[in-house]
Design a protein that fits this description.
single chain; mainly beta
């Protein structure tokens, strides 16, 4: 009885505030990044959320993110979203290829693409995070839709992105509230064999290995006999004289119990 009342209240709230929803097995709504959905089994307070329909404000060059809120009236399987091009006057376009749903796809730590099968349990509220790269997008009002699929059913959600002319450093990643750093989940930086800037190659002479700010000497058994660090305590600068980290050389002793 409680579950039914929650669902009814959820539907009424969405209708009152003009969000898109389906009366079938799930309810849908789009939500700004500024209000991340945290609860998974309770209904958010829509009266505290910005209104204005499914229209988002972005800046040229930004990595823009938003949420698709899904309320499961029944257990959902094979949940995924698909994208269409967003179009504006003058033939301008935000191609579907620059959009992704982080819940369902991404890049793993080896730089390989992967997909994930998403499911939502009955009575649960799930946020699906969407990102779009506006690096090469010009200012304009772009309209289109995102399509939600689950358990053999689908629903299109129309929305608009108003892209204004502006300047952002690092696609907005320097400002945490923009949630642009989510794109780092799919980063392939560091996959190459090239050294990351400021690091130096490992250097070995006999049993001593030198690396950035440290020097490690191995014993004949291959265990650390000495570890020198040249960093200060805050690890922000380096000293000219190294400090020994080990009290004694590392040994591996095997004894009878």
């Amino acid at each position: 009885m409680i579950k039914k009342s929650i669902v009814i209240a959820f539907i009424c709230t969405i209708v009152c505030y003009g969000h898109t929803f389906s009366r079938d097995r799930f309810g849908l709504f789009l939500l700004e990044r500024e209000k991340p959905l945290k609860a998974t089994d309770s209904i958010p307070q829509f009266e505290q959320m910005p209104l204005g329909g499914n229209t988002f404000q972005a800046i040229t060059g930004e990595y823009y993110t938003f949420q698709i809120g899904v309320m499961a009236y029944d257990s959902l399987s094979h949940v995924h979203v698909s994208f269409n091009d967003l179009k504006a006057k003058g033939g301008l376009c935000i191609p579907a290829s620059v959009m992704t749903c982080f819940n369902q796809e991404g890049t793993d730590f080896r730089g390989r693409p992967f997909t994930r099968d998403v499911s939502i349990r009955d009575g649960k509220l799930q946020a699906l995070w969407v990102g779009m790269d506006l690096s090469d997008v010009k200012a304009g009002t772009y309209s289109g839709s995102v399509k939600f699929h689950a358990s053999g059913k689908s629903k299109s959600i129309p929305f608009t992105v108003q892209v204004e002319e502006g300047e952002l450093s690092e696609n907005g990643c320097s400002e945490g509230w923009r949630m642009a750093r989510m794109k780092w989940l799919n980063s392939t930086i560091g996959q190459e064999d090239e050294l990351t800037k400021s690091f130096i190659p490992l250097q070995r002479k006999d049993r001593t290995i030198t690396l950035l700010g440290r020097r490690v000497t191995l014993s004949e058994q291959g265990l650390p006999a000495s570890v020198l660090t040249y960093f200060n305590q805050s690890v922000e600068t380096m000293n000219s004289k190294g400090q020994e980290v080990l009290a004694t050389p590392v040994t591996f002793d095997v004894r009878n119990a």
